[in-house]
């Protein structure tokens, strides 16, 4: 699938400071960046860096003067997510657990899985396989959590969403991750661009490690899991914020657009998503 | 310096389950394990694994039967921490920031640095260098937080300790980390063995990334930072728990002993620690 | 019903301080204290006070010297709780709401009903009457919260219990109260003595205001709601702690015993409790 | 002092529901309502009720139809706060403690004084009198907490403000109350109208019980404590919300105006406020 992405961000600063943007599409074995252009106005040198472990890509910008900084990122990205059916997924044995996914079992800033052990066992413990558990977590979230724009903020965590029963994509992903980790299923945060998201924005999903693959889940149901482009991977939103600023920086304006440009693309239906799972890595 | 370590752990289980122990001394460029013996009673095969990114070492044990499992770990470890004086530490420039330490700037489960920005700026923002800031954080914790055995539990976080003004080594480390990250100083959790710790136990410290080195700090003052052996490195205690269990496992008994066996070892004095900083990696 | 109560408390202090005990059985229209004896060793003058609004009774003790203070309270109490059947309870109209129960609709320290509106509406909002809602809250708690001695502490709240799915009587009461208030049903905390409680201790229940009566509910199921003696009434445990100390005071020992002394007393069965409700005021 | 108050509130509802407004000026021994007019459009019968314990005044409105409800409250209020100088305030003895203020020593929803004991003792414990302690709390808040409009929401508590070091009037009051209670000084929440508040809004202050009087403190410094009109008294904001709704109600618009109409009124200076304390009850 091929995507056309255009992101625009305006930041203002009152003094000299550095900030790190994480908005570029990842380059990995299943995702190719066919074209990309990163524009910064006023024009300035800036450093592009890629994290070797996660593959996340950063632009380090040092604003020397107070004022408005306009960033525009345009890209054409192609990816080939793998479609997996339930019958092709073997049981994950603890013995097979790779240590590089171990960190995705631990509690993180916004995913306090350490507190959800009893709840997860009560609700999902009787299900036989990790896959069925994740599907049940997805169904539980869809039934119990309301998507309410503006209802949460940067310090809202999975526990908050669980209690207050509402949130946005980031909160849905956090709750999914926290529940899975509480069930001993490695889970991580996915941030990216989603085809035709309404309203247009960056999007958050989560991935679970089942039978040596990361499967992608969108707990909000707003995006089709095959029609997303990965920007970053992390333990939770703390790891992949759009912008990490080393001083006071204000977001003045943001626009995001992402469209599949394959003429014959069809969104996956809920029925398909019950039997086919999508892996981006 | 050379250390003799003996750890004994008894766990009981009521059914089949796997658990992952993280009690072995790391092997790294500054720390050699001269001898070690890991004993498990009843005798059983178990897997030893090393995480390539962190260097943390794990033993994966699968208890097939209910009952009591006795673990004994004995080791002789030699390490050579580097002593650095303040004048040898250059300024860290944001431009030099290596991406592999970026994760140590982000908020984590027990270190909610995202909430402490204002407090950290108020209290420490006027200090000129990261080193002075960390020293001030250390002094602030020593002055304001009481070491109270048993006052906290597994879900206690840096914010809790900040509010309730008490904790144990783990909490002291979390608060130090959270404050440093809120000041844009990368910081991570260190768990290990400390010479002659009273009462004997595993110990927690923290490390800060300054001028391309990790410097070690013991916010409790109970250990000398040159007289510790690293078991593990992580974002916070969530990453380096002694035992990660995939099912209900009960710790029945624990004993830890660690002694420097160099006959002429002298503990560093508080005066020395104001001018000399210790790096274990 | 007539009860024999014996409570013993040993407190130690390291200096002069005052403390307020709240352990005496209330005197109210449905509860008579037939005999009582309050003993303090060493013997000292102390003030007995009764709160006019709540009826809670306090002993204000000023310990002039460091040392151990032994308190013994013995009482014979008779009460006559009213048995109400569902059909006798009319609908409560908001218009009839008495302002003196309004405070029992508001969120309190341990009962954050303000955060539970969505959850309560989802789970119980479809039920027609306040009585059915409270019964459903009781059933939900019984099904989802495990009684685990020692699992919580003095700062544990209803939200914590909801997330961690465990607690003791105090936590069960807090969660019941928080849920009811989130459903606009006035609810308050009841602390008292319960017949033959195992293990023996002070007990916590809650009351809901329905059709101009306070009905008593024991969410733990450990006590029979007709076989309890009220010590105190409050918004939550913050209001009716056994001891409010104006300085550092340590509880060294506690024993509580409460027995119905009517020879023919029969505990109410779960079946009875589905149709008959108990009001102590 | 005489005040002219005009409040306008527009609420919308999508169905039948009741709500309780708490916007009228209290009538008490130090405050007289000379004139008042309460207008509700569309015109409807509504119940006016006064809580006998607190003196808070409520209007219970039952909206029978979906739509917009416009409320206008106009009043002329005269009050005579007492000016007290430090030398006239005797020591409060615990023995004199009146039980009706006991509830103002306990932790409440937004004032978790139970968690602040160590911090309060560290920071303020050395001061000799309750008055000096409250003054030091006021100075600490002024120095450490930034007034930032929109930085907090309805579930923000004293602990949150303490950690994040920012808030609005409600948060300043909560933090003041929590600190005082942690110092064993009874404290309660005051909500009212303040002369010439910028921007115009309802205002929150707090009161402390010292030598048998409630003294009023505005931790934000935005209002002069002698130039306020009491609407309500409570444990914290949970008790005196402007509107308690028994169903989904949306605030569409709010305007508040309050002016002292005495021609010669002079705002108290910070210097005066160091020596003269104001009591409204």
From TrEMBL, chains A, B, C, D:
Residues 161-221 form the Transglutaminase-like domain. One of its GO terms (biological process) is proteolysis. Keywords: Hydrolase, Protease. GO terms for molecular function: peptidase activity. The keyword Protease applies. It comes from the Bacteria. The keyword Protease applies. PANTHER family: BLL5557 PROTEIN, BLR5614 PROTEIN-RELATED. This is Transglutaminase-like enzyme, putative cysteine protease. It comes from Prosthecobacter debontii.
């Amino acid at each position: 699938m091929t995507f056309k992405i255009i992101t625009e961000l305006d930041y203002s600063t009152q003094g000299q400071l550095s900030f790190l943007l994480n908005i570029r599409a990842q380059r990995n074995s299943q995702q190719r960046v066919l074209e990309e252009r990163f524009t910064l106005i006023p024009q300035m040198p800036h450093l592009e860096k890629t994290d070797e472990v996660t593959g996340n890509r950063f632009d380090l910008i040092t604003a020397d003067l107070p004022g408005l900084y306009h960033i525009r990122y345009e890209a054409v990205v192609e990816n080939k997510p793998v479609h997996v059916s339930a019958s092709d997924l073997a049981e994950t044995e603890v013995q097979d657990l790779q240590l590089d996914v171990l960190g995705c079992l631990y509690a993180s800033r916004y995913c306090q899985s350490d507190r959800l052990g009893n709840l997860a066992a009560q609700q999902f413990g009787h299900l036989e396989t990790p896959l069925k558990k994740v599907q049940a977590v997805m169904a539980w979230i869809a039934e119990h959590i309301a998507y309410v724009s503006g209802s949460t903020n940067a310090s809202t965590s999975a526990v908050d969403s669980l209690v207050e029963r509402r949130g946005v994509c980031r909160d849905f992903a956090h709750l999914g991750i926290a529940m899975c980790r509480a069930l001993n299923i490695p889970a991580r945060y996915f941030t990216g661009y989603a085809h035709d998201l309404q309203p247009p924005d960056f999007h958050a999903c989560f991935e679970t490690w089942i039978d040596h693959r990361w499967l992608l889940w969108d707990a909000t149901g707003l995006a089709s899991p095959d029609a997303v482009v990965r920007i970053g991977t992390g333990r939770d939103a703390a790891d992949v914020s759009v912008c990490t600023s080393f001083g006071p920086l204000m977001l003045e304006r943001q626009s995001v657009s992402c469209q599949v440009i394959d003429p014959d693309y069809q969104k996956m239906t809920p029925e398909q998503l019950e039997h086919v799972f999508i892996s981006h890595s």
